């Protein structure tokens, strides 16, 4: 993973020239993205960004530790041997060896951050004391591990909650959320609750993270990633929705990995991701480890989310159990409104997107 001194220096010079070019190009849409509420600029380092995004030094330390773990996992994914499975987690899911490696890296990073009270993961769902104080973290160490051997992009998902509770909370209570995307590029994508936008940092040859994109608006566009298509056979509402996408000639962009499929909504600033249940295909996605963190990333970027077959934003569903599962839709506000219209027979998205849902929404989703 480590580059030579010469290659590191050369990579750093290339990175600096690239960053300067990005700043100088006023015609590029990506180059023009600057967080409106604060002095954050494309080309800033992760440390510079965090210094502006939050005054909380503990949260800065935790996000820095997660970025370091992401960098290490990226190397492990690139060099992993994925010829077979290693073990089975407590939910009965088959795992590749790299899953457990990523899990251990994240737990170790959180322990040595000294600012994490408890942590749990999809592989170790019961909270483990980390010896620190300030925040608790839930994560999916390697979402999409079943497609690692095909060399598709995979990723890490995490949510950060204040205090030492990981139940009796909602996604809206998160202090921050993030994901690492391991593909041709390695990126670290984060949202800080209360700070505008969702922000993408690119890993450089010298190991540093540079801000390359900030997203504050997700517009309308015909791009769809339909998960769990088997559900169309006994979920007529979902079948009609998928038929709508096809009839309207939406562009299909689905990899089978939740991280890259949701990440493309942020990159393209349009589109919709769905993963719907049916009587024969039960909910697979975990609210705590996957759904709530990604909901904060999407909603902070100006998008929307809806889950559990209710007119209910994913950020408002109460986590009552670590293994709690749900269906989900992420995307632009218009696409989420369409999802609710088809799945519920009516659209109250304009209501739920204009103000937070009330507690009964979370209670009904249990």
From TrEMBL:
Its main location: plastid. Residues 220-343 form the Fructose-1-6-bisphosphatase class 1 C-terminal domain. CDD domains: FBPase. It is found in: Plastid, Chloroplast. Pathway: Carbohydrate biosynthesis; Calvin cycle. It catalyses: D-sedoheptulose 1,7-bisphosphate + H2O = D-sedoheptulose 7-phosphate + phosphate. Residues 57-213 form the Fructose-1-6-bisphosphatase class I N-terminal domain. Its EC number is 3.1.3.37. The keyword Hydrolase applies. Its cofactor is Mg(2+). GO terms for biological process: fructose 1,6-bisphosphate metabolic process; fructose 6-phosphate metabolic process; fructose metabolic process; gluconeogenesis; reductive pentose-phosphate cycle; sucrose biosynthetic process. One of its GO terms (cellular component) is chloroplast. Keywords: Calvin cycle, Carbohydrate metabolism, Chloroplast, Disulfide bond, Hydrolase, Magnesium, Metal-binding, Plastid, Transit peptide. GO terms for molecular function: fructose 1,6-bisphosphate 1-phosphatase activity; metal ion binding; sedoheptulose-bisphosphatase activity. SUPFAM superfamilies: Carbohydrate phosphatase. It comes from the Eukaryota. The keyword Metal-binding applies. Belongs to the FBPase class 1 family. Homodimer. This is Sedoheptulose-1,7-bisphosphatase, chloroplastic. It comes from Chlamydomonas sp. (strain W80). The gene is sbp-1.
